[in-house]
Design a protein that fits this description.
The chain has 434 residues and is α/β, with parallel strands linked by helices. Helices cover 68% and strands 6% of the residues. It has 3 domains: 108 residues, NAD(P)-binding Rossmann-like Domain (Rossmann fold), CATH 3.40.50; 64 residues; 250 residues, no CATH class. It is built from 14 helices and 5 strands.
Length: 434
């Protein structure tokens, strides 16, 4: 039996929960999981059932409890876990899992595996050294390519900005801008709103737009200005949050590729529609958007009481992202409650869903903010600055807390807060109209 590694040596990140997939219900797997849980409390275990197995897990004495059960293996299943524990068998399933784990860079603990011969060990060592050398070279050139792309992007951006706004005017205009800033008590509330919204969004994968929209709707701003301000600020905080999730290993690359382009396209369409309707029908759109945030609050509240389902393959992820991007731009929020909650309801691991959706959100908000900027220009700088500062302060902390906080309690709190704020805004707006 291969010795099961200690979580403290595998984890690499302090206070990060460790996701384990146990393959099969053999007594060896049960003992291995219990041994891991004996010294390591922050582990979560899911079980992949194997058809025709003769053993059964001792569920009553198993520590920790099984969180979710998978009846079938899919090619993306192991990407949601930090460690795979399985009993060796010369079967197609085991060979597939070992190959997929090797390709994805996921650690595997193989129990009762036959000892390799001296020749096999030498070949494996040579292969590992070759792969390590190749990966090192690829990473080197990837870093060079990324730096060149960033340099090119900054050069192009500088050229565009200097073409429309000469740099010699910048210093004087910046002094005038700072002198004209009216940083009253409302600015502090915007910082607090940005901090709370990003803390919730970074930890749960939802809530930034909903919380910010409910706060700004109560101030009487035009709906298009609200959505533009939120997405401009959210672009910075979601970028910081996405980078933090990437650092902590919370990203599923396959899911990210499926979400990003449809999400951006939906956001651009939603922002364009709101920009042209917001000016003329702003007073009527405000109660409609309040009703929308009320429904989002109810959805969040319902999600708090949903039980985790068996993992299912995600279908039509692109359409889901497109709808989420559109509603997020047009309604000022909804990307997280729609996309994150739908993916988690499929039984997927919350930490990877939250991290991937948070990273995708940066590109969605960038597309939305750029569209609003092109159509409407910039306004409400104090509001945007407050939201940005609060969001940047909360982003790293929220990424560390992802999967650590009691999700049910936070969902209930956010849902109740959004519902109360939405009802209050609807009442004030309708009373003013009539």
């Amino acid at each position: 039996m291969q010795q099961v590694p200690e979580i403290s040596k595998l984890n690499g990140v302090e206070n990060k929960s460790f996701e384990i997939l146990a393959v099969g219900e053999s007594s060896e797997v049960s003992k291995a999981i219990s041994a891991l849980a004996y010294k390591n409390k922050d582990i979560v275990v899911d079980l992949l059932k194997v058809e025709g197995e003769d053993f059964a897990l001792d569920a009553e004495n198993l520590a920790p409890e099984i969180r979710a059960f998978h009846n079938a293996y899919t090619d993306d299943l192991i990407t949601y876990y930090d460690l795979i524990v399985l009993q060796y068998a010369d079967t197609a399933l085991v060979r597939t899992i070992l190959k997929d784990a090797s390709d994805a860079g996921v650690m595997v603990s193989t129990l009762n595996a036959p000892a390799p011969s001296a020749n096999t060990a030498a070949v494996n060592t040579h292969q590992k050294e070759a792969v390590a050398a190749r990966n090192k070279e690829e990473n080197y050139w990837r870093k060079i390519a990324n730096r060149c792309l960033f340099a090119l992007a900054f050069i192009l951006l500088g050229h565009v900005v200097s073409s429309y706004y000469p740099l010699h005017n910048f210093a004087g205009d910046f002094r005038i801008f700072v002198q004209n800033l009216d940083l009253d008590a409302a600015f502090g509330w915007m910082v607090l709103a940005g901090f709370v919204a990003q803390m919730v969004d970074g930890a749960l994968g939802m809530g930034y737009g909903v919380i910010s929209t409910t706060v700004l709707l109560s101030t009487g701003l035009n709906p298009a200005a609200i959505s533009g301000s939120i997405h401009t600020a959210e672009m910075f905080s979601s970028g910081a949050s996405g980078y933090s999730h990437y650092r902590f290993g919370n990203i599923n690359k396959k899911l990210f590729k499926a979400l990003v382009l449809p999400g951006v396209l939906g956001a651009v369409i939603g922002a364009t529609l709101l920009a042209y309707l917001g000016e003329e029908y702003g007073e009527w759109l405000r109660p409609v958007l309040s009703l929308y945030t009320l429904l989002l609050g109810l959805r969040i509240l319902v999600n708090a009481f949903k039980k985790r389902r068996e993992s299912q393959k995600v279908k039509n992820a692109g359409w889901l992202a497109g709808a989420g991007g559109f509603l997020d731009s047009f309604g000022g929020g909804g990307w997280g409650p729609l996309v994150t909650s739908t993916l988690i309801s499929k039984g997927k691991t919350p930490r990877y869903i939250i991290g991937t959706v948070s990273l995708t959100e940066f590109f969605v908000t960038f597309g939305s903010a750029l569209t609003f900027f092109i159509i409407l220009g910039t306004s409400h700088i104090e509001t945007i600055a407050g939201l940005i500062i609060g969001g940047l302060l909360a982003a790293p902390l929220a990424a560390r807390l992802a999967g650590k906080l009691k999700t049910k309690t936070m969902l209930i709190s956010v849902g109740v807060l959004v519902i109360i704020s939405s009802v209050r805004t609807m009442w004030k707006t309708i009373s003013a109209l009539y």
